[in-house]
Design brief:
3 helices
Length: about 100
Amino acid sequence: MSRLIGCEVNSGCQIVWKYRLGQPSEMHRISTELGIGEYQQVGGLEDRLILARSDLKNLEMQVQMLKETKTTDEDKWFIAMIEAIRDCILISPNQEQFIFESDL
């Protein structure tokens, strides 16, 4: 069974990211390490990251900084997940709040 990150957007639920086999959810890192958004753990099985459209600029700056400083394969997967989350925000210009949930 795949683990996914999804987000409810104006056009319905969209799959944003599919984890690699055995990869844990790293959405918490966006909030705890980068200081962006609000992270919540729900019932021990799911987690949630709440972002606002206003977080987009900060996400982009962090992605660029991480690309310049991080080099491990694990870091590259984290950066790719952030980019997928950023892209989801970009394709929904009329939405102000985004709730990303894992294990949908």
